[in-house]
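Subject: complex prediction, re-run

Hi both,

The earlier run crashed halfway through, so I resubmitted it with identical inputs.
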Amino acid sequence: MTEDSVLDELPGDLMIWVLIVSELLVFGAGLAAFLAVRITDPAGFAEAQDALHRTGAGINTVVLVTSGALAAWALRLREGARRGAARLALIAAALLGVVFLWVKGAEYAAKAAHGIGWDTHPFYTFYYLLTGFHAAHVVAGVLVLLLVAWKDAPRNIEAGAAFWHMVDLVWVLLFPVIYLLR
Amino acid sequence: MKYESQKIALAYFGVALGLFVIQIIGGLLVGWVYVSPNFLSELVPFSTLRMLHTNSLIVWLLLGFFGAAYFLIPEEAEREIHSPKLAYIQLGILVLGTLGVVVTYLFNLFEGHWLLGKEGREFIEQPVWVKIGIVVAALIFLYNVTMTILKGRKTAISNILVLGLWGLALLFLFAFYNPHNLALDKQYWWYIVHLWVEGVWELIMASILAFLMLKLTGVDREVVEKWLYVIVAAALFSGILGTGHHYYWIGTPGYWQWIGSIFSSLEVIPFFAMMAFAFVMVWKGRRDHPNKAALLWSLGCATLAFFGAGVWGFLHTLHGVNYYTHGTQITAAHGHLAFYGAYVCLNIAIFTYALPILRNRDPYNQVLNMAAFWLMSGGMVFMTFTLTFAGTIQTHLQRVMGDYYMDVQDQLSLFYWMRFGSGVVVFIGVLLLIYSLALPRKEVITTDASVAAE
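This time it finished cleanly. Structure:
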C-alpha cells in the first residue's frame, strides 16, 4: 500500500498506542463498574472512603504529575542532543515513581494494620483492584523509564514517556473518583 | 508447490478430515441422545460419546494446525522443512495415541490405572501414556519447525505461528498437574482450556489468516504484518487475564469476578479486529485469486469467529449474567459457534487453499465447496440460535423460577429436535466438502468463465 494511513501521524510507535488505549479501556471499565456498584450503597461507600488517606494521595498526585513532566522534558532534551541531561531527567522521573510507590505502600500498610482487606467492603474490592493494578503499572513504568534512560534513542524515550503519561493520566482519574467523590 | 516438504501437510490434512467425520458422527449421536435420552445408554453412554465428540474435535484441529505449519513455514522461511521423516514420525505418534484414546474410551479399559486408564478431567481425559505421546510429538514438531525457521527467512507470520504453537505445547504440561483440591484443579485446568482457545490458539489463527490474506488478496506484507501485531497484542492483553471469567464460582477469591468481567469483555476486540482485517484486505487487495472457495472460508472464519467467540462469548461473560446462565445451553451455543467459526473454518480455509497446490491441480469443485460452506455454516448458525433460545428458557425456568433440571429438559425437547436437524445439515455439508476436496472434477471457476457468462 502506498497511501499513508492516519495512524502514521501518531507520535511514537503504533503498538504503544494500542497498549495505551487498551489500558484506558480497562481502567475506564473498572471505574464505571465502581460507580455503578456505588449507586447500590452510597452511605457504605462514603463511610469506607473516609478511612482513606486523602493527603497522601494528594501528595502522590503532585509527585506523579511532576514525574510525568520530567519524562516529557527528557524527550525534549534528547531531541536537543543533550543526552546526559535527558538521562538525568529520566532517572529523576523514575525516582519520583519510587516515591509514589513508597507513599502508596505506607497507605496499604496502614490499611492492613486496621484489618482492612479487599473483602471488607465492595468499596475496598475496587480500591485494591484499581489502585493495585495502577501501582503495578507504576512499577513497570519505573523499569521502562530506566530502560529508556539506558537505551536512549529518541524513539525509545518517546514510547517510554507515552506509557508513563498513561500511568499519570489513570492516576489523575482514579484519585478524584476513589478518594474525593462524595 | 514450491517446496517438496510441503507435501507433509497432505498426510496431516487427510487424517484431520477423517477425524472431522468421526467428530460430526459423534455429534449426531450425542444430539440424538438429547432427543431420545436412552439411546445407546447401555452400549456407549452419553459421557463417552461426548468425550469422543470433543476430543476428536481438538485432535483434528491440532492436526490441521500442524499441517498448516508444515505447509506455510517452507514458503515463509524459503527452505525445506528440517526433517520430513520426523514430521511423519510425529504424525504416527499422534495417530497411535488417537487410536489408543478411542479404544480406551469405548471399552473403558484399565479403569483407574495411573498410566493406562482414562483420567477424569473434562477434555483432558486421555490416559497418561497418550499425554506423554502428545508431548513427545509436540517436541518433535517444535524442534522441526524451529530449526527450519532458524535456518531460513524469519517473517512475522511464521514467528507468531511458532510462538503460538510453543505456547500451546508448554501450556499442555499443566495436564500432568492434578491437585487434589478441586478449586486448584479447576484453576490450573483452565490454563490449558482457556489459555489455549482464548490465548495461544488466537495467535495461530491470526497468523494462518494473515498468510491466507497475503496469498489470496495480494496486499503488501508490511500492511498484513501491522494488522497481525495489533491483533496479537489485543488477544494476549484481553485473553490472559480474561481467564478470570472462569474463576467466578469455583472457589477462587471474589475479586476475580471483576477482573474476569472487565478483561474478558475486551476479548471481543481481537475477534472484531480479525474480521475487519479480513474484509479490509479483500477490499484493498488487487489480486483476483482463482481460489474463491478459500477466500469464502477465510471471510466466513473471521465473521463467524467474531459472532461465535466475540458476541456469543460476551453474552454470558459478565459475572452478573453468568450467575444465572452458567452451564446452561447458552454455553453450548457459544461453544459450538466459537469453535466452528474460529478454528473449524480456519482449518478448512487453509485446506481449501493448500490442497489444490499440494496435488498440483487447479482449484476444482469450487461451487460444491462453497455450497458446503453455506450448508455447514447455515447449519451451525441455526444450531446456535436454537441452543440460545433453549438456554434462555432453561435459564429462566431453572435458575430464576427454580424448576427441576430434568423437568426443564423436557420443556426444551422442541429445540433439541431442531438442533438435531441442523446437525444433519452440517453433516451433509461435511460430506460434500470432503467430496469436493478429495475428488477432482472438470469444472473450474475462473474470471474468464464469469466474464463469458455475463
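The radius of gyration of chain A is 18 Å.

- K.
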